[in-house]
Structures are given as structure tokens and as C-alpha cells.
Amino acid sequence: MLIGLLSDTHGRVDAAAAAIKLLRERGATYFIHCGDIGSLSVLDYFAGLPAACVWGNCDYDRSTLCRYADRLGIQCFGSFGELSLDGKSIALIHGDDHRLRQRLLDEQKHDYLFQGHTHSPDDLRIGRTHLVNPGALHRARTKTVALVDTAADTVELLAVSDETSILR
After folding, report:
1. Does 2-166 carry CATH code 3.60.21.10?
2. 12-46: per-residue pLDDT in tens?
3. Sheet arrangement for strand 154-159
């Protein structure tokens, strides 16, 4: 399964549109937003797609965002979510709750931990847990998303711009 992973759009509709387009072109079949969505308009790009999200520290009107996500068929977890996709257990957080992040890494219960918040991409293995941060689509020198291949257990970090490119 190819998972399109993005975070920290902060309401940047143009960047969200480019990111979803790129991830779809690269074959993503499931989409996850790791928080700091920033506006209802960003959620529109997930409409009709299998998708999930968690809240970030800058998602202020969470009840409105949650109702809208529900109407669009987007699974909204709040501050923490767990998914099972392609036989893999996945934890979703924004990353601003450092105690929760550390607890999840210490417990070693998940194959993947997806997070955002830092605006810097990461692809690390900590014990059995593969930690992936797609970077950010706002306030980042290079705007990035991640394409996670659960079958191969690989991560491609993709730059999002007018001329998108593969970082690795």
C-alpha cells in the first residue's frame, strides 16, 4: 500500500492541492494529514479519497473542522489516532505532545509512527517503529510530503513545487 503523508499545511490551499496531486500521481491510495490543517478548504482536497487526520497545535476550531471532515468522509481522530493498514499498525500524532511521542516510541507497539509539527522531514527507525515526518507545506524552506510504501517499508520524501522532485 502507498500512503500519502502530509502535515502542517496551515491553511495553504495551493500547497495542499499540489501535494495531493503529486501524491496521487505517484500512486498513493490512502492519505493522512498529521495536523495543523488550518482551514476547511484544505480538507476539500481529501474529499472522496480514503483519508484520516489528527489535530495539530494550530488547529483551533476543532469541532468545526471535525464536523466538516466527517461530512467529507475523512476519519478524524483528534490528537491521537491508530490505524491498521496493509497489516501494519500505525500511530498518528501531530508531534507537539512530546510525552505522548516518547511513550509511543518506548512502547514499541506500532510498525509506524507518523507525525508532523517540526516542519522538518524525518525517516528514522527506532526499534521496530518506523518514525516518519513528512515535513511541512508552510514555513519550510523546501515544502515536502512523504510517500510510504508499507509493503517495501520504504519512504520517499517528495518536494512540492511547480516542478516537483524526489528528495530521496
Report:
1. yes
2. 999 999 999 999 999 999 999 999 999 999 999 99
3. 75-76, 51-53, 30-33, 2-6, 144-149, 154-159, 165-166
